[in-house]
Amino acid sequence: MARPSNFPPPFSSSDYVAEPTDPADERIEVGILIVGGGPAGLACAIRLGQLLEEHPDVAERLGEVPVAVLEKGKQPGSHLVSGAVVDPRALRRLFGNRLRMDELPTFGPVTGESVYVLTRRAALPIPPPPPMRNHGNWIFSLSQLGSFLAERAEEGGAMILPETTAQKLLVSHGRVVGARTGDKGRGREGGELGNFEAGSDVVAKVTVLAEGTQGHLTGVALDRFSLHGEDPQVWELAVKEVWKVEKPLDRVIHTMGWPLRTGKRYREFGGSFIYPMGKDMVTIGLVVGLDYRDASLSVHDLLQELKTHPKIRRILAGGERVEWGAKTIPSGGFHSLPQRLHAPGLLLCGDGVGMVNVPRLKGIHYAIESGRLAAEAAFRALQRGETPATALSSYDDAVRDSFIWRELHEVRNMRQVFGRGFIVGGALASAMTVSKGRVELGKMRAEPDADQPLLVTDRDASYPAPDGKLTFDKLSSVFASGNKTRDDQPNHIKIERRVPREVARLWEHMCPAQVYEIGAEDGDGTVLLEVAASNCVQCGAITAKGGRLTPPEGGSGPEYTLT
Amino acid sequence: MAALVFLEQHGGELQKGSLGVLAKAASLGDGDVAAVIAGEGARALAAEAGKFGAAKVWTCESAEVAQPLPQPRVDVLAQVVEEGGYDTVLFANSVLAADVAAGLAARLDAGLNWDLADIELQDGELVGKRPALQDSVYAAVGWSGTPRLALFRAGSFDATPAGGGEPEVAEVSPAYREHSTAVKLVGQDAAESSGPSIEDADIIVAGGRGLGSPDNFTLAEELAKALGGAVGATRAVVDAGWYPYSAQIGQTGKTVSPKLYVALGISGAIQHKVGMQSSGTIVAINKDANAPIFEFSDLGVVGDVHAIVPKLTELIRARRA
Amino acid sequence: MRIAVCVKHVPEGPSRIDPSTKRLDRSGEGSLNHFDANAVEEALRIKGESGTEVVVVSLGPQKALDSLRKALAMGADRAVLVFDDAAEGSDLVVTSRVLATALEREEPDLVLFGQQASDADGAVLWAAVAERLGRPVISQAMELSVEGGSARVKRQTEFGYDTLEAPLPAVVAVSDAINEPRYPSLKGIMGAKKKPQEILSLADLGIAEGDAGEAGSRTTVLALGDPPARGDARKIEDDGNAAQAIVDFLAEKRLV
């Protein structure tokens, strides 16, 4: 059976590495450049603001713009999607006693939780397995948190530049010296439109990549500096909705089982989450590992199916969907982390390098902590005026000494374990957590998601027909993400367009935003893949499953507010 | 209610939209309704205004209103409102009327509700109805104090003669403010013969993927020509290169609200819907009976565009001949 | 020469009406009304490399500074925001009064507006402001040039194209066909923060609180509801006579 990885995309990392080309007086100079306005990048900016306030002498050396944050979304928060139940320890460290938890835009602490194993009709409660217990954690909309953190970062002196992508990594004499921003105003064929505006070289003393899952320059940097970890990275795709509801939900809920199939040959690893957002809103999402094999599997449609479960229907009864979003989550864990988190002039943070604890479904606190530690490492290097190449290694040391490393190590084989099927996997996973990782199963190597051989079933026959009230089609969901991407721009998705039918089918079902469609057939069993790039919500699934996502024009994509 | 309706004239004819507003005002049956006509030949048009319900017509033919410019008309209306003691002034939307209404609102410090689709008297109070938020909600709006100014969406009311008699005619010659007469019309060109642009067209025929191939866009073009309308396209066909982006209707294209929108082979995804949902009448032809477009069209035809449209075009041509 | 451009900060994302105030919910993110970007662009084109000053003026919440900064990033020189809690819920009568007062302070030679506001779909503000300023107004400009103390405009109406001239100072509202707004350059975005941004209260303009906001407005929103159903929607299957059925339907509606 075909594998998507047999049809690699026309993409080469080296196309995205360059020396600065703008004349010296046109380059934009900043002190520290942070790529990505999410929790990692903004935590870095906030911490830098604190340090520079305490040390104005260092601030002076960084010029007019000591800290700049590039954000490709319309504004910080526009591209942030998560559950989210957040472990507050990193936020507490970041803000010290400057802010209390209730001063953050939170929906409050977790007040109860349940875990269910679902069948088509029933919901069997099971005691929350240890990794899933959420006492002491707080509920947030990550999009709102991003917006809030951006304001704090600006107050601390950072300059946030929204609608700006980082297209190329600027490398000179083996050192990262900044990033080149993307062009704006190109037409579909790549030509310059009337209001064409070329990107700029932004040069900095230290560059921090905090781009989140499938970070574009992060991927390029891992290749360029040969930083890949022992295991290839793997991902899960999460699709979620935010609903206004009549009955308040009083607990966080996680489910496993239906509608995912438990047989080993399907490799359907995942589950759902349902979190209250205050008294009148609820968020519901489904997370599925992208190592699944069935070309007919559609996470978006499985989410729609999930909502028809009697227990879920009751939660959503009388309600109204107000937002929808999708994003991938790196799930390779400890063994997929890069060998080093720094290179000359460069620091790597957060989801971009896979700092996610899959069994606990947590990564935001690692992102924030890594951003904070990156700020301290960058600051130290600049303070001492050392050549950043050596000084930045203190970042790796700091991360290894932190709870990020400790926790990821504890659950290091969890994900791979589920490759053995749900029942076996579940038992093994619990055993690992309870023993704090001391149960050694022998190292199991993760395989890249795109290497999974495909099978084709009629799974799609049971997806519910959208009724526009409880269940929705993909296009109206893309609309509900706030996506209004300009159509007349180059296609930002690199992908092989002539592929066997089942590969095209895989991508067609996989993409939650209906970007891919099976087009005309060729005589030899292949089909032409049609790509509606302006639907793309930049979830990153395609990169996991055989294509390559690159950033479209700045400002494109979803405009999340509540996800 | 002492109502005054602004009647617009062009090329020696009273505009249907404003006559419709006049007929509506008269039908409210709350006192006599007056009208005002400004421009060359206004007096000659007074009788027709009477047929549509005006009991009194104010006319102004001074040189200052010879050109179709809004500001001198603000002076005319302000004078008429004062002389006639009107508490309500109604307009049918047009490029000219909107500017007159807004200028008058500022002149008189009077409330102006625009984009109205309807109006009624509720317990003696005048209540306007207007769509908002891309037609997803309907608001009831009111006024505090007088006069009350109301600007109606084009084509809100049919111009049906109310069977009125000869109206009383009065001439008005206001003092014009200096700024009112500062703008000069120095040139005029008729509309291009290549047909109306999408934004202004009263009729739009739009094609989607259901047309099957770029060649089949001629079906849409022929029908548009027969109807005297413009041609639109969905994002899907523009993406596929079948038609230029300038014709794209939808969330990331143009938003239109013609009197008639004919959708050929268009499924009706929400990205397209938000660009045309406030069209007056929507006719959709699609061979998929479950296409979402049928949920918001006035006439839905489940069938093959290739079979239906050529015949439809022929019948329209025959009618118009 | 000084050109003033009136801009509005409008809500982003799916629009929601606050059922308690029956006004548009402006609490979320917002951005520069994209029609106003055409007006800013036109002002910048007229300015070119000359010493003409382009000042952007807005009445809105504190967050409107974001939209004003976008205009500054495009190349405008200065921003003035009238922000006052008492101005919330202002209708056309009040808004035009406040803007006109703010504009008079600037003594502009030319005042530009965009085609409409994407939130209230109003296409009326400029005529009201021009009346209060006592200046000539031309709307729907698709071409604009300024020479020898006059503005020359080509505009499109229902009947064709008019060419009009008005002596400065004048007010012109541009249509979205007039230009394609530029993207701010990164340098522009970064430089915007340093450009002068003034915030004025109603008191600074000499406007009493009672003359502003809902108190000073002359229109009200009484109620919100669902739009009326589209009337009798008909759905038929083609049995060979669909074309005739369509013609009959259109004739009934007097559309042919």
Give a written overview of the molecule.
The complex is a heterotrimer of chains A (563), B (321) and C (256). Chain A has 563 residues and is α/β, with parallel strands linked by helices. Chain A has a domain at 13-94 and 145-232 and 334-410: FAD/NAD(P)-binding domain (3-Layer(bba) Sandwich). Chain A is 26% helix and 23% strand. Chain A is built from 16 helices and 28 strands. In chain A, a hairpin with a 4-residue loop joins strand 26 and strand 27. Chain B is elongated, with a radius of gyration of 22 Å. Chain B is of the alpha/beta class and 321 residues long. Chain B contains eight helices and 18 strands. Chain B has helices at residues 16-27, 42-51, 70-84, 95-108, 217-227, 235-239, 270-273, 305-320, and strands at residues 3-7, 9-10, 13-14, 33-38, 56-60, 88-92, 111-116, 118-122, 125-132, 137-143, 148-152, 168-171, 184-190, 203-207, 230-233, 260-264, 281-286, 299-302. In chain B, strand 9 (125-132) and strand 10 form a beta hairpin. Chain B folds into two domains: 3-181, 3-Layer(aba) Sandwich (Rossmann fold); 203-320, 3-Layer(aba) Sandwich (Rossmann fold), CATH 3.40.50.1220. In chain B, the strands form four sheets. Chain B has a seven-stranded parallel beta sheet, sandwiched between helices. In chain B, strands 15-14-16-17-18 form a five-stranded parallel beta sheet. Chain B has a three-stranded antiparallel beta sheet with strand order 8-9-10, with no helix packed on it. The N and C termini of chain B lie far apart (45 Å). In chain C, strand 10 and strand 11 form a beta hairpin. Chain C contains seven helices and 15 strands. Chain C is 28% helix and 30% strand. In chain C, helix 2 packs across helix 5 (186-192) and helix 3 (92-106) packs across helix 4. Chain C has helices at 34-47, 64-74, 92-106, 125-133, 186-192, 213-216, 242-252; strands at 2-6, 9-11, 17-18, 23-24, 30-32, 53-59, 78-82, 110-113, 137-147, 150-157, 160-167, 170-174, 197-200, 219-225, 234-237. At the A-C interface, strand 14 of A face helix 5 of C. Strand 18 (299-302) of chain B pairs parallel with strand 15 of chain C.
